Known about the structure:
Blueprint: H1 3-16, H2 21-67, H3 74-87, E1 93-94, E2 98-105, E3 113-126, E4 140-153, E5 156-163, E6 171-172, E7 175-176, H4 177-194, E8 200-206, E9 210-212, E10 215-217, H5 236-242, H6 245-251, E11 281-284, H7 287-290, H8 304-316, E12 322-329, H9 340-346, H10 349-357, E13 365-370, H11 379-383, E14 388-389, H12 394-406, E15 411-412
Parallel strand pairs: 5-8, 5-12, 12-13, 13-14
Antiparallel strand pairs: 1-3, 2-3, 3-4, 4-15, 6-7, 8-11, 9-10
Helix pairs in contact: 2-3, 4-12
Amino acid sequence: MSVRARMLTLLKRFSADERGVYAISFVMLAGFLLGMASLGLDGARFVSERARLSDAMEQAALALTAEDNGEGAARNYSLAKDYFRAYMRREIDVFTPKVVVKRGSSANNDNLSYVEYRVSGQTLQESWFSSSLFPGFDKEVIVGDNGAARKYRSNIDVIFVTDFSGSMNSAFDGSTKLNELKRIVLQLSEELFSHKINNKVGFIPFNWGGKEGGYCDLPFVTNAPYPHDIFKFNLVYDLEAIVNIPATVAAIPRRVNDIRIPMDHVEGEGVCLKTSHSWKVPLTSSMSTIRQIQGMTADGATLVSSGVLLGVPYLAAGTASRKVMVIVSDGTDAPEDVMLTPNLINAGMCDKIRRVISTEQSVGKIAFIGIKYQPTVDWKRCVGEKNFYLPQNIKQLEDDLRRAVFEEVGHNILKD
């Protein structure tokens, strides 16, 4: 066979041989197939990450409406980034979010004011299949989204039940606990009144009880006659012996005056605000009225439950859609082994108070703020963990008082 014939025969065999044809096709299509796989896998993951980021920003927006720290507050950005990091576990970096605060009024006849927080942000993600050999995403990809929430401001009644024992005069970050408390209460009152929706504020000072006119005011139902000489401080245990705990809780929110002793018969200096220049300020929408607290002074010992029970009738009589009691103290009840307060809590005092200050629009709220001390009474069980605060400095006290008054979760709305 000639050379030419052999060549033709080999060419015919080669053209008829199908072995390896798919390998060649795969090599030719490999780049395209890998690119499609890369885009599919990474793309699906980025869609999932964007959905997670969207959830994070929706939750961040809700949290920001609850706190309502205002436009430009550093807390807005740190809180939003915390939510991003909690949800976005695979990010390379979290960029500083953008927070926009809007305020306005509803279009309905109720004309309720509202605050709205819109949060947008971006995270940097790493591609799993980035390569220069086939089509795909860049090595690093920015994933972004946004969220929004709005909270309508129904009108609110706030009662500050405040410890006016002598320890409130002690130093606190270059000032005193009492001065800072009064300053912050006035600041919050101005803000509440500025909303023009009939918000009201009340102020109930206490030490070992309170005072009403020229009489000692201890709001406990008794089961025995009350001796006039009990206010010698070493006889406070006699009060505990004659208080009817279940009847006292059952009486909430009625004002109780079973113990009615003229102030000039009170011998103990640590009780009934006898040596404290202070008095009750019922709910008011007048800034000049609430400014009375500027001239008040503190002295004496502490019995927190007496202040709480003194404040309930005033708050229960309010007419606002929301009612909040903020209890502020800087020390334990004295003497520490007096069990009046824990016995009242165990008997359901806090639950009863919440029921009587609840409205059709809102569950009544009680918050406890312990200034720079650890309470021996379980106030966290009384008010709930989210309403229990232990500030250690002025900034924390200001933040915690603000949250106690204003914190109310809104609802998510349509985002951009």
